């Protein structure tokens, strides 16, 4: 589980709610019509902008950020070194039997076992990175659009509340609910954009960069094993992807 994402999301909402409670009643910040306008309008607009499949996939990707722990460069390097050790000890063909849940790593092992040309490995890397980026960029764009739509529908709610308020100036009792819609919808839209949608888009963008780096390590490792399957030499090459501090602690 990604503790940073979970902790940041929880602490953000807790601080906002705490500030509200310290200044008054929490119930004052609940308005059903305002929620319908902002939440309903935002998700209706995003379904018009993108195919439903892309919307669902982007939200599943956001959910997976809570469940999946961010992989470390050091871990990927060590995996490739262990694969080099197996290939040196048992031969390249033995890599066909390696079991892994990572389909990219499995493909790399198959290419090594087949003694593929380094150019094929490079081409495969380019295709995998391009496909991964395209898929992730759609998810990032979905959340960026959501971050733009939420405040916009908050303003729409504000206009609706102002119209209702101006239409009933002769009835003082109706001014309060109308003003609540006018103010709270902007509040809802701003909170959704800055505490949910924009942070999630940023986290997805960071995850994309990290996955791209992992792919480069996997395929550079595969190429190195084909050229010279000495585990020490493979590590020396792949350790360049690691921060200097981690290289010292992982030295072989």
UniProtKB/TrEMBL annotation:
| GO biological process terms held by the UniProt record | bacterial-type flagellum-dependent swarming motility; chemotaxis; protein transport
**GO annotation, cellular component aspect:** plasma membrane
Compartment(s) where it occurs, according to its Swiss-Prot or TrEMBL record? Cell membrane; Membrane
Tell me if Transport is a UniProt keyword of this record.
yes
Which keywords does this Swiss-Prot/TrEMBL entry list? Cell membrane, Membrane, Protein transport, Transmembrane, Transmembrane helix, Transport
Main localization category: membrane
The record's listing under Pfam families reads: MotA_ExbB
Q: Where is the MotA/TolQ/ExbB proton channel domain?
A: 99-215
Per the UniProt record, which residue ranges are transmembrane? 35-56, 146-167, 179-201
Q: How does it sit in the membrane?
A: Multi-pass membrane protein
**PANTHER family in the cross-refs:** CHEMOTAXIS PROTEIN MOTA (PTHR30433), MOTILITY PROTEIN A (PTHR30433:SF2)
Q: Could you say which protein family the record assigns here?
A: Belongs to the exbB/tolQ family.
The entry's protein name is MotA/TolQ/ExbB proton channel
Origin organism is Desulfovibrio ferrophilus
What lineage, starting at the top, does this entry show?
Answer: Bacteria, Pseudomonadati, Thermodesulfobacteriota, Desulfovibrionia, Desulfovibrionales
